[in-house]
Design brief:
Layout: H1 2-26, H2 30-47, H3 51-67, H4 71-87, H5 91-108, H6 111-128
Length: 129
């Protein structure tokens, strides 16, 4: 049991360690790293069940990626926000985020991601109706 607990603690520290590294990088280039910091924060908060804080961090990640003109990272932030909202049962909000992700990936030119998101939206159709 001690080994399992130690392994679990190590796994839980990985996102926090990555976030610390992203914060350090953002000190040198806010334009390039700010949205990544917000997105990693959102993921950590979502995993911890801190949903309101996660929602705010996803919104910041999306707007920051848009401001930096990183359309693919904006799409990723929308997609992950969609999964977050799906996980907590906000299906109509998840739909909106998945649709935004699809628009971003379309603009970026990634048909593979567009197809993937389209499948997510199709699976959601019955939950939303």
């Amino acid at each position: 049991k001690i080994v399992k607990r130690t392994s679990s603690q190590k796994l839980k520290s990985i996102p926090r360690d990555a976030l610390r590294e992203l914060h350090a990088s953002a000190a040198y280039s806010q334009w390039n790293f700010r949205n990544k910091v917000y997105l990693m924060e959102a993921q950590v908060l979502s995993n911890e069940g801190r949903n309101e804080e996660a929602n705010a961090s996803y919104a910041s990640a999306i707007s920051s990626a848009r401001a930096s003109r990183f359309i693919h990272e904006q799409g990723l932030a929308c997609e992950l926000a969609g999964f977050h909202h799906k996980k907590i049962g906000n299906n109509s909000i998840a739909w909106v985020f998945f649709d935004q992700a699809k628009q971003c990936y379309t603009e970026w030119g990634s048909q593979v991601k567009v197809d993937s998101i389209s499948r997510q939206l199709e699976a959601f159709r019955s939950l939303i109706a």
